[in-house]
Amino acid sequence: MVTMKDVAERAGVTKQTVSNVITGRVHVSPATAARVRAAIDELGYTPNLVARSLATGSTRTVGLIVPTVTGSFYSELTEEVEDVLAVHGYHLLLGTTRLDGERAKQHLTGLTSRLVDALLVAGDVGLTEHLPVLADARFPVVLCAWEGEAPDTLPVVTIDYERAGFLAGRHLRELGHERVAVLGHPAHAPRIAGFRRAFAKDGITVPDRAVHFAPEPTPAGGIAAANAAFAADPDLTALFTTEDLLALGALEAARAAGRSVPDDLSVVGHDDTMEARQLSRPALTTVSLPKREMARQAIEVLMRAVTTSEAPTNALQLLRPTLIVRASTGPAAPAGRGQ
Amino acid sequence: MVTMKDVAERAGVTKQTVSNVITGRVHVSPATAARVRAAIDELGYTPNLVARSLATGSTRTVGLIVPTVTGSFYSELTEEVEDVLAVHGYHLLLGTTRLDGERAKQHLTGLTSRLVDALLVAGDVGLTEHLPVLADARFPVVLCAWEGEAPDTLPVVTIDYERAGFLAGRHLRELGHERVAVLGHPAHAPRIAGFRRAFAKDGITVPDRAVHFAPEPTPAGGIAAANAAFAADPDLTALFTTEDLLALGALEAARAAGRSVPDDLSVVGHDDTMEARQLSRPALTTVSLPKREMARQAIEVLMRAVTTSEAPTNALQLLRPTLIVRASTGPAAPAGRGQ
DNA sequence: CTGAAAGCGCTTACAG
DNA sequence: CTGAAAGCGCTTACAG
């Protein structure tokens, strides 16, 4: 394996000079620089990045922890992170938790040892309890896509999930809906709270029995939850699902139950995924989250901390969601149908 | 920052002894081992992995290059790779190409410098031309999910794509279809060739004008391509799409054109994605690929090469696809409809 | 079972 | 502008 010393000998200089022409930190006379470059080419030399990392204390790698890379939300976030990193010349070390606390912990401890210059943790499920592991991490950490309670010691760039739910609820209220149900996941409590707030403003409470947790975050899970909701309240006129895939299942369940959307039933989703945009019939009204923007800002906070080697401020940055009205929502039917 | 030397001083031993208790390579007396461990805890010492990597020559990281992490095929592959890696105690460095040759090249060259112990390249689009960059890589490389021509210098673990297309075609032939069209992408030439072979066996040629390339690999792209196919041959009775998402679009286009599936039109997809399983109406007949198995085998070949430090044999391993018959295919209609 | 030495391949002040 | 030295924090034979 050819090293800097080999190049130096070949070019008739010392290895420091070779280092200088490679890093460009110190000016080298054009003549010797050319000799060095020639030697590099002839020998097919490539620098050993591990050695460089040890000397500089930087691996030019950042770690990203996400729940999964399946499903458009986190995969788009991952690609956005990768893009921003590439601009800065950084590599991406990826770990997925699969919503499993043990896996999350393993990743957290595994990265504690200077393998990465910084760490971005996206998604809080199963992670919150293991965050203390990071207490004496010697690199900056930022949290994003954080829906639960975030520790106030760390900077977090996330979305105003409560508002996302509120937007969905307000839209339904404006259409006159009163009897509604929520299909979701326990981890989405803030969205659900926001949704409820929109109704509470008008003195309408969305009772706990109107909140149905789906067995899995898939269309099949949505079908099951929707059927449960129909059974619990045959007179409901609208559904808010905390994930688009659940909404697609709900649409299917409505069809099977003979409920026409949006005439008999309005459905609003959450995330504005590709599935919502291209596969739902009717086209799904949903809440769109600025995920790419969030990824970009989170990683920028991280990169700033890395390049300035100052700890980032532990600010909480909240990005605003947007409601996208399509064809799955309409005015509340004049009366219940009690089918 | 606390180092091994600090721990050694605290425990009253030399740093080599500390190293010995950490690596476990050399037996250390229980008494001193306990002292060392205590010192580690008190000081909150964690080993510097970069220094270890430089000394051992291994980073315990493998690189994975995929076209994208959006869409279920490569994201499931990525998670499978991650799982196998975790078993071996390895980290995952991820790079996506987005089907862009330039990005691919950057990743390839970026990893050339001992940052990774091994490299898995999944998906050939835009990559083949840049593979020579890897010529003097000092770590094992394996190719997978390789549909185009693979260089015979590297081991490849892939799927028999030609057979995948053949299975789709044979199924349609067994149902009596003769006038068919293909919706796909130029990079899927092998699947298309296999599909054609199934018809050629019975003396039926699928002409070039029956092959329609979709503008994009999405349902919208599928709609466009399906409409082109209907226009080119109003009498066709079946469609093979080289990706499930195109099939979903085709189903939509058929509905819009008043063609009932599978009575008037049969549709067979490719990949058996979540969308095909849960979102298609009627349920999509498709070809299932053993992607997780492929990922597992590819990474095992890599890990074997890494642990034995023998170059892997440049074998070509072909995994077999399976046809999943659901509800979108049926017997060919007795006569064309010429609508 | 423990210690002294050398080395992994770079970079970073610091002299000249 | 170039060279000699020290150091990044480990591991790996090799003595004792």
From TrEMBL, chains A, B:
InterPro entries: Cro/C1-type_HTH (IPR001387), HTH_LacI (IPR000843), LacI/GalR-like_sensor (IPR046335), Lambda_DNA-bd_dom_sf (IPR010982), Peripla_BP_I (IPR028082). It holds the Pfam family Peripla_BP_3. Keywords: DNA-binding, Transcription, Transcription regulation. Residues 2-56 form the HTH lacI-type domain. Gene3D superfamilies: 3.40.50.2300, lambda repressor-like DNA-binding domains (1.10.260.40). The keyword Nucleotidyltransferase does not apply. GO terms for molecular function: DNA-binding transcription factor activity; transcription cis-regulatory region binding. Residues 3-50 form the HTH cro/C1-type domain. PANTHER family: HTH-TYPE TRANSCRIPTIONAL REGULATOR GALS (PTHR30146:SF109), LACI-RELATED TRANSCRIPTIONAL REPRESSOR (PTHR30146). This is LacI family DNA-binding transcriptional regulator. It comes from Streptacidiphilus fuscans. The lineage of its organism: Bacteria, Bacillati, Actinomycetota, Actinomycetes, Kitasatosporales.
